[in-house]
TrEMBL record:
Belongs to the vsr family. This is Very short patch repair endonuclease. Transmembrane segments: none annotated. Residues 92-132 form the DUF559 domain. Gene3D superfamilies: VSR Endonuclease. Pfam families: DUF559, Vsr. Coiled coil: none annotated. SUPFAM superfamilies: Restriction endonuclease-like (SSF52980). Signal peptide: none annotated. GO terms for biological process: mismatch repair. Keywords: DNA damage, DNA repair, Endonuclease, Hydrolase, Nuclease. May nick specific sequences that contain T:G mispairs resulting from m5C-deamination. CDD domains: Vsr (cd00221).
Length: 136
């Protein structure tokens, strides 16, 4: 079923750049473990969703649509305004790579989780983070 322009517009306006559901799920799991972090730190390139500043660990919670999960296949599913959405998402993918490389070059450990990973296994995602923190 095709959505109306109004429905699409409403859906896009609901997208948040911070405090998204996937971020809250992961942060809650980290908080339960006693891991304290900063969120959406503007002074760090890419404004990571979760930051452990002293340990130089930056966590990004990437939603599948905006960050191009399985992009070779998913880009074919975009039906409307392809000339707008495809370059936009491809630039997001490119920016994610640039941010990751720059932060790693500056000594940061960068971890990226897909939203579906976080929803399916928040404990496992938090285990990965906790393990990295323990090793640093």
């Amino acid at each position: 079923m095709m959505k109306t322009k109004e429905q699409i517009s409403y859906n896009m306006k609901q997208v948040k750049c911070k405090d998204s559901e996937i971020e809250r799920i992961l942060r809650n799991e980290l908080w339960k473990r006693g891991l304290r972090y900063r969120k959406n730190v503007k002074t760090i390139m890419g404004k990571p969703d979760i930051v452990f500043k002293r340990k130089k660990v930056a966590i990004f919670c990437d939603s599948e649509f905006w960050h191009g999960y399985d992009w070779e296949h998913k880009n074919k599913e975009i039906k409307t305004r392809r000339e707008f959405w495809i370059p936009k998402i491809e630039r997001n993918i490119e920016r994610d790579r640039e941010v990751t490389k720059t932060l790693e070059d500056e000594g940061w450990t960068v971890v990226r989780f897909w939203g579906k990973q976080i929803k399916k296994d928040p404990t496992g995602c938090a285990d990965v983070i906790e393990d990295i923190l323990r090793r640093k």
